[in-house]
Amino acid sequence: LLSLVMQAVARQPVLLQQLGPAPVIDSVKFTAPAGPGARLQVQLAEQGRGLGFEVLDGTRTVARGKLVPG
Fold first, then answer.
1. Half-sphere exposure of residue 44: CA atoms within 13 angstroms, side-chain side
2. Nearest 5°: phi and psi at 32?
3. Lower Cβ count inside 10 Å, N or C end of the chain?
4. What residues contact 24, with CB distance under 8 A and at least 6 apart?
5. Is the whole-model pTM more than 0.85?
6. Residue range 25-42, pLDDT digits in tens
7. Parts of the chain with a pLDDT under 70
8. Residues 6+ apart with CB under 8 A from 29
9. Which of 60, 68, 55 is nearest to 1 (CA)?
10. Who's near 49: CB < 8 A, 6+ residues apart?
11. CA–CA separation, 12 vs 35, rounded Å?
12. Computed over its alpha carbons, how large is the radius of gyration of the chain?
């Protein structure tokens, strides 16, 4: 799931630049399982000096957390 988050960040150059070349996972919480074939969506939002993320399976959050510059 975290690789999906990093792929989503890589598609947004402004956010990628904000995090720098080696972002650090400040926090992550896996809130529900994501089964094989799940259609996952990543939502990103600026949070202080970092970047908040949520991974969704439909309307259900399966993971959330924060990346900060490394």
1. 21
2. -160, 155
3. C
4. 67, 68, 69, 70
5. yes
6. 999 999 999 999 999 999
7. none
8. 63, 64, 65
9. 55
10. 68, 69
11. 27
12. 12
